[in-house]
Amino acid sequence: MTTSTVTTPTAEQFGERLFGAVLGAQFAQAAYLGDRLGWYRALAADGPLTPAELAARTATAERYAREWCEHQAVCGVLLVEDGRFTLPPGPAEVLTDELSTAFVMPLARMAVGFGRQVDALVAAYRSGGGVHWDDFGTDAREGQAAANRPLFLGPVAREYLPSVPDVARVLDGGGRVADIGCGYGWSAIGLALAHPGVTVDGYDLDGPSVEAARRNAVEAGVADRVRFHLADAGTATGTYDVVVAFECIHDLPDPVGVLAAMRRLSGDRGVVVVMDERVAEEFTAPGDEVEQLMYGYSLMCCLPDGMAHAGSVGTGTVMRPDTLRRYARDAGFDGAEVLPIEDAFFRFYRLA
Known about the structure:
By secondary structure, this protein is an alpha/beta fold. The protein folds into 2 domains: 11-96, Arc Repressor Mutant, subunit A; 114-351, 3-Layer(aba) Sandwich (Rossmann fold), CATH 3.40.50.150. The chain is 53% helix and 13% strand. It is built from 14 helices and 11 strands. Strands 6-5-4-7-8-11-10 form a 7-stranded mixed sheet, sandwiched between helices. Strand 4 (176-180), helix 10 (186-194) and strand 5 (199-204) form a beta-alpha-beta unit. The radius of gyration is 22 Å and the shape is globular.
């Protein structure tokens, strides 16, 4: 643990910081409304629009649409001229383009979803209990899946994993892949789309996520090579050439048990790869924005979800490399090598 030397803010300076955070919270809430009500998409497709036109296109109330448009213009998101509002290309990509790596809208969706459970979180913090993933609902599920979708369909499948020679040979040769904690299935689907010879089995314990993953596979045209199972990885059978777990090990109440199952599924020759948050090597205060973001997720979702299960180790989002290495050794691996894959938010490990 290290502590950096920082200048302590005055009351006025810190008050300004908190005030800015309140503005940011309001902005995220308004963005959530614009997303859920279809206002951003309508403006991107048909703008410029008056509030009345926007309301008519989205079956919403004009008075609310007008207040929202004015708020967004005051905040510098929308442009306004002669009573008509326009969503410029840059913000439109961030707010509406689901396949762009600049698509940040899902993070606002997740923030609102987590906030709905604030009373349950307060109770859990007092009792030492938890708040189950199921309780966070659709916003959390859809937000997380949408946030990672561009990454899984793009860089992970087409650049990151193929940069690992042993994994590339499997992807090029048409091997079998197991995707542990598959969620909405975009990681498995991305691999199948980028590498036509591979077959992928995805495993997850969340029923709505598995149902969505199956629909997504059909729509992507890969359901013949990608199958999703509502099952614990520990119950999976057979041997796979590559076994992956993307951004889920830190959530698990029993990460060692799941890593041991991944080791078994990889057999004598399979490759095991874990992707998890690129947090700092050790706790240092203050931390950068990625560190702040991950601690925020841990406070509001990942740690409470993990703690909702009896016997949980309570990892939380901020799983540092040495923690994963310890879990890997306890699961029977010799260790966890950090792969030379550069991503702003995620670190990739090979377990052997």
